[in-house]
Design brief:
heterodimer, A: 219 residues, alpha/beta, 8-stranded mixed β-sheet, 14 strands, globular, B: 267 residues, 8-stranded parallel beta barrel, 10 helices, 11 strands
């Protein structure tokens, strides 16, 4: 089997090096043959076997950053929607999969997982926003990205830090939720496109296991 | 369920940990990156670097430490100290910080918080509030903001300032009692509670931890979402695992799968 290329899209959004390092470590630990490539080049993204869209920051700012790289949205769309390659969005990168974001202003997303990204409003007003810290995952359905990962209240924890959350129009797109006095979408997937609201690159064991699952994913 | 966070904090000066840390097997007690790796393996929920370097010239040293830490540790990292402009926030985030703490600059210019939050998202903007009690015995509780390591009074009410910066887009507040800092007599719980009740964003209790019961009190009585401590962890008085076990035994929801001795959740 030839070496797979995993493109992590660099569009000036926050801390991409720790994402790249986490993927490199997951490659080493899982014994896979893959090359992690941090790139701002649409041609590299178009040719990659797997694509990761990280994202830290405000929704509109991330969308503007993505649009500022000529040809990037087209390359991503061709690879993920045309060629059906495995695609993972992380945090705002996951939120960008939605139809639109409502942070500060209304911003169009990619629309691959229809739904809005709106403010978190816990039913208990004493709960703090952002939803910040370590929470457990509650699967809505089985998915290859969660294979072998202990979930539920006694399972492993994922690291969240966000004030807005994706509400998919189609409940089937939800793979797992976190409980924060009500459900928060934690992991979404439709066909070959998936996204995590939490940060796998900051989520220690759960994160490395999920990244390894993504590297092995054959949607 | 969201868990209470334990955050060890390293004071860094000129690229070295102030006073060092004492862990078994640590090659260099003054290297912040080495200390960060130990806390990562020990199951700390986040890590905090506070840079107290006086000169701007040493900024590159801090960025290098942040970058090397982010490459070695897969845990959230907050970095503060000397952040004066949106560009300082950007440089730290690009180096690998997950959150950036703004202190004196937020007091001088609260709009900096708004500009940074709009650019990078509120979730990564922490405002560090250093407060001292200014009310006398028998008077209603009152605290004022002090800057420059607690030396310079501003006359600004701490609770009002907390509400102001939370409204401008701070995603979290790091509340340090300058009366308690270094005393090992516990957090100023009234201060922590007053600010936590006044804002909708998470509050980190800081300043004064002398024992594990102080961590419990910071959450149970102070209303904090996270507890920060330095010396009790750095000098081996308690491990992160012991602190978590103690807090869990007191009824707080803690993440126990990250610690080295986590036989309970095999993977």
């Amino acid at each position: 089997m030839s070496t797979e290329t995993v493109a992590i899209i660099d569009y000036g959004s926050g801390n991409l090096h720790s994402a790249a390092k986490a993927f490199e470590r997951a490659v080493r630990e899982s014994g896979r043959d893959a090359r992690i490539c941090l790139t701002a080049d649409p041609d590299v993204v178009a040719a990659a076997d797997r694509i990761v869209l990280p994202g830290v920051g405000a929704y509109a700012d991330c969308r503007a950053g993505l649009d500022a790289v000529p040809g990037m949205v087209e390359a991503m769309t061709q690879a993920a929607q045309g060629a059906g390659r495995p695609f993972l969005g992380i945090c705002v990168g996951m939120q960008l999969l939605a139809s639109r974001g409502l942070e500060y202003t209304t911003t169009p997303g990619l629309g691959w997982i229809p739904g809005d990204v709106g403010p978190i409003r816990p039913a208990d007003p004493s709960l703090k926003v952002p939803h910040m810290g370590w929470n457990t995952l509650h699967p809505a359905r089985d998915h290859a990205l969660l294979a072998g990962i202990p979930t539920g209240e006694d399972g492993l924890h994922a690291y969240f830090v966000h004030s807005y959350a994706l509400a998919p129009e189609n409940p089937d797109d939800v793979v797992a939720q976190a409980d924060y006095c009500g459900p928060i979408t934690a992991l979404v997937a439709r066909d070959n496109v998936a996204g995590t609201q939490f940060h796998p690159e900051k989520s220690q064991r759960l994160g490395l296991a999920l990244i390894a699952n993504f590297l092995a994913w054959r949607p | 369920m969201l868990k209470t966070r334990i955050i060890p904090c390293l004071d860094v000066k000129d690229g070295r940990v102030v006073k060092g840390v004492r862990f078994e097997g640590l090659r260099d007690a003054g290297d912040p990156v080495e200390a960060a790796k130990v806390y990562d393996a020990a199951g700390a929920d986040e890590l905090c670097f506070l840079d107290i370097t006086a000169s701007r010239e040493a900024r590159g040293t801090l960025l290098d430490i942040v970058s090397r830490t982010a490459e070695a540790c897969f845990m959230p990292l907050t970095v503060g100290g000397g952040v004066r402009a949106v560009e300082d926030v950007r440089a730290l985030l690009l180096a690998g910080a997950d959150k950036v703490a703004i202190n004196t600059a937020a007091v001088k210019d609260p709009d900096l918080v708004a500009r940074a939050a709009e650019k990078f998202g509120a979730q990564c903007i922490v405002v560090a509030i250093d407060a001292k009690r200014v009310s006398g015995p028998g008077e209603p509780d009152a605290w004022a903001i002090f800057t420059h390591g607690g030396r310079d009074p501003t006359g600004i009410d701490a609770v009002a300032f907390a509400k102001l910066v939370a409204g401008r887009g701070a995603g979290e507040l790091l509340v340090t009692s300058m009366d308690k800092d270094g005393t090992r007599s516990g957090y100023d719980l009234a201060l922590t509670r007053a600010i936590s009740d006044a804002v909708t964003v998470p509050v980190i209790a800081s300043g004064g931890v002398g024992g594990l019961d102080d961590l419990v009190a910071g959450v149970a009585e102070g209303g904090a979402s996270a507890v920060l401590a330095a010396s009790i962890f750095h000098f081996g008085q308690a491990s992160i695992a012991e602190a978590k076990a103690h807090m869990a035994a007191a009824g707080l929801a803690m993440r126990l799968d990250g610690t080295a001795s986590s036989a309970r959740t095999p993977l």
